[in-house]
Amino acid sequence: MTVLVVGNGGREHALALALARDPGVGALHVAPGNPGTAAIATNHPVDAGDGAAVAELARSLGAGLVVVGPEAPLVAGVADAVRAAGIPCFGPSAEAARIEGSKQFAKDIMGAAGVPTAEAVYCETLDEVGEALDRFGPPYVVKADGLAAGKGVIVTTERVAAIAHAEASLPDVVEEYLDGPEVSLFAITDGASALPLQPAQDFKRVGDGDEGPNTGGMGAYTPLPWAPAGLVEAIMSRVVQPTVDEMARRGTPFAGLLYAGLALTSRGLRVVEFNCRFGDPETQAVLAMLDSPLGEVLLAAAEGRLADVGELTWKPGAAVIVVLAAEGYPGTPAKGGSIEGPRLFGSEDNVHIVHAGTSLDAAGGLVASGGRVLGVVAQASDLAAARRDAYAAVDELDAPTLFHRGDIALKAGRGEIPTPAL
Ligand code: AMP
Ligand code: GLY
């Protein structure tokens, strides 16, 4: 089978790597891809957000499956355009992708489906924001209503900072603060049944010790040694399946990857957010652990046959990804910094590098061209070993304009995260 992956980030590189391992996947193409995907697939200079162009490329390649990675093309209807051309596509329709595209829509679905989430107030004016902040009290949580690449949220004890964030991002959703560790659980769904991937945790804040502003994610690890027994089953039965059922009931089935971001609070599990696609960077760690043939599973989901696929199988051990970001991120990142070192275009050991914001300069050298630039992924017998190998590989890189967090999977690897109740 010929497969086309749409997108150009670390998630798409990770998807391409996992698809390349599936013996059922023959030719592998990426649009537009990046220098990392060029090493394992054929890149095509097609705009990921242009549904007609993506569908035409898929048709000309004879693709048997298209996998749309990022949220923006999904919200823009790229998966609809591919399906309209008669080509199986893994990725939700534009209508279903609203579960990520609008915080308010997601809250509405959760309310109707009885899915536990933070209490929230939709605010169109600063007066409404102020009232909602005072109702919930600190710490304050204010979220821009639309897509914001993980950067539309502020969590702060400073009321003035919460108001300032709202002033720049109305309309907003103001919500109750959720305590407790966060979990990312991805479920593959065909609109009716759903299959969980292994849970992961990502690190949203830019700095060590969870200091500084939110980012798209600075690192991740999987599995979660501290997870309470029955965690995945509880999330599937209380969150994922009711959501899938509610979307189907409304006539807008969600077929694709439903990403549940959850907090395991002192009052039980709560949804922090839904995303309509694989999480980045968790996917890079989760897919490093996957044993099942990814192309076959995604095709079954795209064709509404997911119920015939058994449980996914996983490698033993754990995986860790450490993200290298460009100075300035999550603000304006420095561009053009040189990147040198081993494993940049493939590796022979248990560590590999995914490209996110890289490009080649005129001389063919690898340079930084985005906020999150690279991800260093290690898969090993346990979390502490994966962490050690990932950081050792980070240290082998020569990339003076990039920075990373030093504490990815540190507490979990040391067994310092207490197991929360479900
Ligand atoms: P979101 O864009 O909704 O995913 O939020 C990004 C991040 O902000 C989450 O992963 C959390 O770390 C944090 N966050 C969002 N909502 C809440 C909340 N209600 N309580 C505490 N932290 C939150
Ligand atoms: N890692 C968070 C996200 O993909 O939104």
Low-confidence stretches: none
- Determine the strand fraction and express it as a percent band: 25-35%
End-to-end C-alpha gap: 42 Å
Number of strands: 23
The CATH superfamily of the largest domain is known as: ATP-grasp fold, B domain
Overall CATH architecture of the largest domain: 2-Layer Sandwich
User: What fold name stands as the CATH topology of the largest domain?
Assistant: D-amino Acid Aminotransferase, Chain A, domain 1
Can you describe this structure?
With 422 residues, the chain is of the alpha+beta class. The chain has four domains: 3-90, Rossmann fold (3-Layer(aba) Sandwich); 123-170, 2-Layer Sandwich (Dna Ligase, domain 1); 181-308, D-amino Acid Aminotransferase, Chain A, domain 1, CATH 3.30.470; 318-414, Alpha-Beta Complex (Glycinamide Ribonucleotide Synthetase, Chain A, domain 4), CATH 3.90.600.10. It has 14 helices and 23 strands. The protein has helices at residues 10-21, 35-38, 51-61, 71-75, 78-84, 94-101, 103-113, 126-136, 159-167, 231-249, 282-289, 294-302, 383-395, 410-413, and strands at residues 3-7, 28-32, 42-43, 65-68, 89-90, 120-123, 140-144, 153-156, 172-175, 182-190, 194-196, 201-202, 205-207, 211-214, 219-222, 255-265, 268-275, 318-326, 351-355, 358-360, 366-368, 372-380, 402-403. The strands form six sheets. Strands 12, 15, 18, 19, 22 and 23 form a six-stranded antiparallel beta sheet that branches. A five-stranded parallel beta sheet has the order 3-2-1-4-5, sandwiched between helices. Strand 20 (358-360) and strand 21 (366-368) form a beta hairpin. Helix 1 (10-21) packs parallel to helix 11 and helix 8 runs antiparallel to helix 9. The protein is globular and about 55 Å long. The termini are far apart. The structure holds adenosine monophosphate and glycine. Adenosine monophosphate binds at residues 118, 141, 143, 150, 153, 155, 175, 177-178, 182, 204, 214, 261, 272-273.
